Amino acid sequence: MSVQELDALKFVAELLEATARYIDAEADLEMKYGKSFEEISKETLSPPALLELSKKLSPELFTKLMVVMLRLAALGERVRNVWGMPAEEKKKVASEIKSIAEDLKSFLHDIEVNTR
Predict the structure, then answer these.
(1) Does residue 46 have a pLDDT over 80?
(2) What is the DSSP letter of 35?
């Protein structure tokens, strides 16, 4: 087997593992709340829910969350078309997704610190 073939198969194995983690985590969330992830996310990110959240969070924390959400929304179209992109563009999208994830984790950490 060539190095290229081995690399391709390693990628497929990693992709399968990542997909399994995603599906497993989504199933855990759905089992915990008795609703589909789509329902949960629509409820959580609906305008009325965000308005209520804005009343509970400090302006700084709410702004931090809104920046994350806006960045994610702005990236949406590029993510949908990622498989047809050149490799360099895929790297840029991946980097932006990682950055957004880190900012969201930072927001969640701030929430944990402020609710103790």
Answers:
(1) yes
(2) S
Amino acid residing at 55:
K
38 C-beta neighbours (distance < 10 Å), count: 10
Q: Are 107 and 67 in contact (CB under 8 A)?
A: no
pTM: 0.83
Structure-token pair, residue 102:
């880190």
34: left (phi over 0), alpha (psi -120 to 50) or beta: left
**Largest interatomic CA distance in the chain:** 60
The contacts found for 79-85 with CB under 8 angstroms, 24 or more apart, are: none
Asked if 37 and 30 touch (Cβ cutoff 8 Å), the reply is yes
One-character DSSP codes across 41-94: HHHHTSHHHHHHHHHHS-HHHHHHHHHHHHHHHHHHHHHHTGGGS-HHHHHHHH
Q: Tell how many helices (H) and how many strands (E) occur in the chain.
A: 5, 0
- 114 band by pLDDT with thresholds 50, 70 and 90: confident
